[in-house]
Specification:
Blueprint (H helix, E strand, L loop, with lengths): L10 E12 L6 H7 L3 E2 L8 E5 L4 E5 L4 E7 L2 H17 L9 E12 L2 E3 L1 H7 L3 E2 L8 E5 L4 E5 L4 E7 L2 H17 L3 E3 H8 L1
Antiparallel strand pairs: 1-5, 1-6, 2-3, 3-4, 4-5, 6-11, 7-12, 8-9, 9-10, 10-11
GO biological process, one term: DNA-templated transcription initiation
Keywords: DNA-binding, Repeat, Transcription, Transcription regulation
InterPro entries: TBP (IPR000814), TBP_archaea (IPR033711), TBP_CS (IPR030491), TBP_dom_sf (IPR012295)
Amino acid sequence: MSNSAVSYKPIVNIENIVATVTLEQSLDLYAMERSIPNIEYDPDQFPGLIFRLEQPKVTALIFKSGKMVVTGAKSTEELIKAVKRIIKTLKKYGIKIVGKPKIQIQNIVASANLHVNVNLDKAAFLLENNMYEPEQFPGLIFRMDDPRVVLLIFSSGKMVITGAKREDEVSKAVKRIFDKLAELDCVKPIEEEEELEL
């Protein structure tokens, strides 16, 4: 079976979105700790206040500068929903919020399964911008320029994608690496591999 017959049928999952949120105002973290339940604040240990939401399941680190780091969202939509819920909670407990929060995604971490086997030795030899030291780590590390992401590619066809700023960059990166690996004859259908074992 030639690689032109290898079909593209990945499963891609967003695992985590890390974003910064700017409120453009300073916050009284001590007042927040006193009035809002289930908040952790120990300035001797960490300068930010830890605010955990159950729905959606995210954690926000809130700093007195009015900046937040929000992590745990599985989609941009979920991230926006979480930020709105955090702001609503702050307002509910008497924290005045002026203006609209500015949200900026810093990193999207995703996983993917190409449903093919990947010849990492061959890929390491033929791909540029990669690092593959199987004695140290079983995956090939590939730095893609467009979109600007890093992919950890495993022989099972599974991978981790990090560094994306938008969800569509993840899908684009997975499609591009699949096409490149297929073009370089580095992928093999899983069925073909299983037939060889029989």
